[in-house]
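Continuing the series of single-chain predictions for the mutant panel. This is the parent chain; the variants come on the following pages.
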Amino acid sequence: MKQLSFLALLAVVVVTAPAANVQAQTKPDPASIRLYSAMRAYILDKAVIDELKLDETQQAKLTALQKETRSYLTDVSTLTYLLPEKDSTELRNQSQLVLAQEMLTILKDNQTQRLKEITLQQAASGQGFYGSILTLNPKVADELKLTDEQKTKLRQGGRRGQSLMDLLTDEQKKKWSDIAGKPFEGKLGPGGRPGGNFLTFTLAVPLQYLDDPAVQKDLELTDAQKKKLAELDKKQSDVVAKLASLNDEEQSKLADETRKQLTKDVEELLSAAQVKRLKQLRFQFTVAPRRFGGGGPGGGAFDGVVIPMQPIYVLPTPTAANSLHLNEEQTTQIRKRAEQRETDVGKALLSDDKFEDIEKKVAKLNESANADLLALLTDEQKTEFKELTGKAFNGPIPPPFGFRGGPGLPRGFIRIAVVEDLYFAELLYLTVKDVQAELKLTEDQIKQVSTQEEKWRTALMYVATTLNAEKRAKALKSLSALVEKQMGDLLKAEQMKRLKQLAIRARADVDGTTGLCSYPGAAAELKLTADQKAKAAAGEPEKAVLSEEQRKKVRELRGEPIGFSLTTGGFGGPGRFFSPAPERLNWLEIESIQKEVKLTEAQLTKVRVIGKKHQTQVRIEEEKADGQYPAEKIQALDEATLKALDALLMPEQSKRLRQLELQQVSQFNLGEALREKDVIEGLKLSKDQQEKIAAIEEDNKKRVTLLDREIVRRFGRGGPGGGPGTGPMTPDVRGKLNERRQTKLQEVLTTEQKEKWKELLGKPFDFGGPPGFPE
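Parent structure:
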């Protein structure tokens, strides 16, 4: 086996990025990184420029830095998702340090200090876009001697956090004035946020929702209209790509012109009825509650459905208040009446009435509240309300700006083309133990990997933190050639083939078909046409891009499935069990539970082997199912895996693990625990008791569903006045409903059964963090 030569790698790859940029801090302080990131966002705001007295040369350099930063961070984002977890974090930190230090070389010391003060003041006011003051500078909590209550209120505020000054004592305010300097009197960009960061999103507004098939069906768009919309979407994307090369003034001008033209084009394309309906749909989607996340591995989906277009659900939302131009008195009265209805609904849900009677009572409460709320509107507002709402949209809320769910990441957050036809992270994949085992590396090979690991990482960080786009592209090509050569030097042919298969899987996890087709040689192997390449680049699913013959070839390129993930952009990171693996595998990854059940190192090793085997089989079944979820197959695998775990553990270990599971489940869901087969047998529950338990569970389920419909959804997205998306009573009612349920379930048990239940639970265990999930 040939000895690896790092000198050649370093000589060719390191073409940019002064050593100081990367080596200044091997382990950057995350708090400083977030603070510098926020400082960069504010620095070219006109009010900040005036405050810092930046000269023309400094402004020119900072503007040039800003232009480079946009494409740089997009590329870095992509590269981090292709790396193992540890390296991904390191690259994020190093890239932010590079940008911070580039900025600091342009500023004078006094300007840097004042910019820090301005940034901290914005965060403390609750107006900063980059999180609370604790996010940017955690040390301030110690300096101000904040109480736990103060810290909690600051953290809960999020992007619209509570003002720090509203929480401080007089003594703390004096200390804060020393930290933050004199108050900044200038006015920043819209909403107190740095300007120029939202052009991409505002530019997309004219076409918002129009690419969703369900919306197109609702609007009854013709094929010709759909084709024209696709052309407009391409036009909008071209302009977004061009923005990165312009300064702020040029960006604003181009974005404004394009937005106006796109708005005009859409209005001319749609009929009057379609324009009216689109306005209604956008209103419905805005007032409806939804949450970001889910959508399969990688996240990126919007979950939620349109609420009924009734006054009780719509009028309390900020969107309705703005759209109907409600005055302060109307807003106050609407809020009071809506909260009174909520209180009455909560009381009904907590009563011992039959659920059918509760439904009827809630319907009457809603009818009365609807009439009262409409009475608060003027005749003109009533007419506008009717025009705005229309018929409720039938289906889930579509994503607003082209975000896609399912495997991978939202389009626009990554640019996989940066490594198209290039190798990148393969050498670092060799440092992952799971990969070493999968490739069956010899001890000599592992030793060589260990010897070269830090040198590989240093070289890759140099390349990835190269700020100049042209030099970065050149460096990535050089790195790719040398990675390929060194893979060949270190690995046998079969090992190299398998490593490439794993790397292809990693890219597909990150960016679906786009990532798959970006791998070196993949497009040629698949014999992709120009049209197929365009579809793949646009992120269309594999079925829509490839022929059946090509998809067979893809399976060859991917090779056999694996039970682990290489990248942070894939399924939850390396070494972690992910859905739908049995929960018990996750439990046995928790250190405190390992100690409690006295799990040996040998057993833990076997547990992980069982887990990887399980996950590999799961992925095999999922790929066989071709996009469909093979529920029966997965259930059978789960059962087989649990049997394997039972066979591995000693009887006392299995007993204690089961006790812990029952403790955790029964704490929040006693009904679920009482339906378990071993619990039914252990407590000797009669058929009548089992039926009573089922009835209590069904009744509670109906009450919770009604709670979600009538209270949670009533406020919609943003809540009254822009607060959280749940009503003030929701947590209280939900908690009391669960208490009611737990009490009624306990009443089903006899005295003897309650004592036996204590035996089944065993000695109480302090789970610490959220039980059931790896720490």
